[in-house]
Amino acid sequence: MRIGEVLQAKASREVVTIGPDSTVRELIARLAEHNVGALIVSSDGQAVEGIVSERDVVRHLHHDGTVINNTVGAIMTGEVETCDEDVPVDALMKMMTDRRIRHVPVVRDGNLVGIISIGDVVKHRIDQLEFERDQLDSYVHQG
């Protein structure tokens, strides 16, 4: 299965973005409002300029209590791992595990089209295993 199929199966395909000049306070509010763990940093909602997560806030807060007054651009991760819709789910799962990444923006022709979280990947895998179990159960009990 490909990432595009996982994106299609998501309850919401909305990708929440935030500008690099927004404040960390605005970031925290938007994370809470949308109940997500990371936002794509984008000035125009299409180009991926960075990614910023709850972990980024916490790590910076530990070192500098005034980070709350800083900009998103100052704490974001600028080198973002992305994928396209044709990437196999297993390949993305391996990359996320190996690199310890929880959120990966999905891009098409350089434009943001979605975001895949580790939770999306795990949900997909559980659904796949349940389907296989049901098929085996049906096969065993049919005759």
The count of domains is 1
Q: What's the main sheet like?
A: 3 strands, mixed
Instruction: Using the coordinates shown, work out and report the CATH topology.
Output: CBS-domain
Q: In which range does the helix fraction lie?
A: 40-55%
- How far the N terminus sits from the C terminus, by CA atoms, comes to 31 Å
Uncertain stretches: none
Determine the structural class based on helices, strands and strand pairing: alpha+beta
Describe the structure.
- By secondary structure, the protein is an alpha+beta fold.
- The chain has a single domain (3-141), classed as CBS-domain (Roll).
- 47% of the residues lie in helices and 16% in strands.
- The protein contains six helices and five strands.
- The strands form two sheets. It has a three-stranded mixed beta sheet. Strands 4-5 form a two-stranded antiparallel ribbon.
- Strand 1 (17-18), helix 2 and strand 2 form a beta-alpha-beta unit.
- The protein is elongated and about 65 Å long.
- The two termini are 31 Å apart.
- The model has no long low-confidence stretch (mean pLDDT 92).
Record the SSE blueprint.
Layout: H1 3-9, E1 17-18, H2 24-34, E2 38-41, E3 50-53, H3 54-63, H4 72-75, H5 89-99, E4 103-108, E5 111-117, H6 118-141
Parallel strand pairs: 1-2
Antiparallel strand pairs: 2-3, 4-5
